[in-house]
Write a structure and sequence with these properties.
Length: 256
């Protein structure tokens, strides 16, 4: 069983993102506990979002790990991973949020006016930090499973993926939609969202974890996965997820 990638560039990226994760988790927790953001306004919220996302992009460029020194920038896994997460985050925040508003009863009441397709702009950047951690953890767990059970049947692999996606989605919903945040972020029926919404939200990980996992997983950089191909991979995955969302919207009856 192996936890980290055999590719030194990808392994360094995973360790960096794991080390960075407590930074945004602590900041989000402090904001939840103190509600200090209530007086920030649009600029303050945007600065906060950028403060969570920018280090993920800039630190590896300014201080690359030993595995990335000498590699062309676009061949470094952290750059390619960050690009995919950036595109994926904006696609999902823009196109995928309708399901959460209209079917799952999500409500934002942050004191901001800068929004993009019904969601506060600063949350696009906050979500980049979230997704960077989520996908790192999911890849590590998925790798442990795949290397421990390399011959697992396809159905078993699917069940494991669904369980992982559901667990991440459930944890975020339970951790964010709390009484402390009720005035700013809530679901009309939290239990309903935890049960059914976690399945909807978790679908994005079921669709994309194998895609991200394959990126630079081998010891040698995957020269076929250019930024252009990663962009189209993200668009294709987003289309698949939106199809699932349409099915969920047709099947799920929202409580009133």
């Amino acid at each position: 069983m192996r936890l980290l990638s055999s590719n030194p560039s990808k392994r360094w990226a995973e360790l960096f993102l794991l080390a960075y994760s407590p930074f945004w988790i602590v900041l989000i927790t402090v904001c939840e506990l103190t509600r200090v953001f209530a007086h920030w306004g649009d600029v303050g919220h945007l600065v906060f979002g950028l403060a969570l996302a920018l280090p993920i992009w800039l630190i590896p460029l300014a201080w690359p790990g030993d595995a990335d020194r000498g590699l062309p920038v676009l061949s470094r896994h952290i750059v390619r991973f960050n690009f995919f997460i950036f595109v994926w985050t904006f696609l999902q925040m823009w196109f995928g949020s309708d399901l959460f508003f209209d079917v799952l009863g999500m409500e934002y009441h942050f004191p901001v006016t800068w929004t993009a397709h019904r969601s506060p702009v600063f949350l696009y950047f906050v979500t980049i930090a979230y997704f960077s951690t989520y996908y790192t953890i999911l890849q590590i767990v998925w790798r442990a499973f795949r290397t421990r059970f390399p011959d697992a049947p396809a159905l078993v692999r699917l069940v494991v993926l669904v369980a992982l996606g559901y667990a991440i989605a459930f944890t975020e919903t339970a951790g964010m939609a709390t009484p402390m945040m009720h005035d700013y972020f809530r679901y009309r029926d939290k239990v309903f969202t935890l049960v059914y919404g976690s399945l909807c939200y978790g679908t994005i990980f079921v669709v994309t974890v194998p895609l991200v996992y394959r990126l630079d997983e081998d010891a040698q950089p995957d020269g076929t996965r250019t930024l252009r191909s990663l962009f189209w991979d993200a668009c294709a995955a987003n289309t698949v997820v939106l199809i699932f969302y349409a099915v969920y919207a047709a099947l799920i009856t929202r409580p009133r």
